[in-house]
Amino acid sequence: MRALLPVFLLAAPGSAIPPATPVGTPLTCLPLATIRESIVRSDRVIDFRASGRRMYRVTLPHACPGLGSERRFSYATSIGQLCAQDIITVFYQSGPMRGASCGLAPFQPSTLSQ
User: Fold this and answer.
1) How many CA atoms lie within 13 A of 26 on its CB side?
2) For the purposes of burial, counting CB atoms within 10 Å of the CB of 23, is it exposed (0-12), middle (13-18) or buried (19 or more)?
3) What is the pLDDT of residue 15?
4) Dihedral of CA 34/94/78/44: which sign?
5) How many other β-carbons are positioned within 10 Å of the β-carbon of residue 46?
């Protein structure tokens, strides 16, 4: 059995949610090595910037309390990929407190209008 590795993603500040145009079939997983940045847009929307200037939008199935205001989350994986069935946990900037844990969703390749 492989050990779960905790990973922390500090999200870049986001403001308004820019419109996203889907460009292809949603992916179940993204290799960790390709993720360059995560941008938390709200309690439900996270954009992932990947290598090669690719963007993926994840729209969570339910709001994740605190995610939009804190813009920080962690996850644990043992397979070197972040997947739609994985759970993220909100981390508070005011200290090492953990917040809500929420399920991800498929990674929709997108182009963003800014």
Assistant:
1) 11
2) exposed
3) 57
4) negative
5) 27
Model pTM? 0.83
HEC per residue, the chain? CCCCEEEEEECECCCCCCCEEECCCCECEEEHHHEEEEEECCCCEEEEEEHHHEEEEEECCCCCCCHHHHCEEEEEECCCEEECCCEEEEECCCCCCEEEEEECCCEEEEEECC
Structure tokens at 38: 């995560």
Strand partners, 75: 7, 88
Amino acid letter for position 105: A
Q: Can you read off the two tokens belonging to residue 111?
A: 């182009």
| Per-residue confidence in pLDDT tens, the chain, 114 aa | 444 444 555 555 545 789 999 999 999 999 999 999 999 999 999 999 999 999 999 999 999 999 999 999 998 888 999 999 999 999 887 766 789 999 999 999 999 986
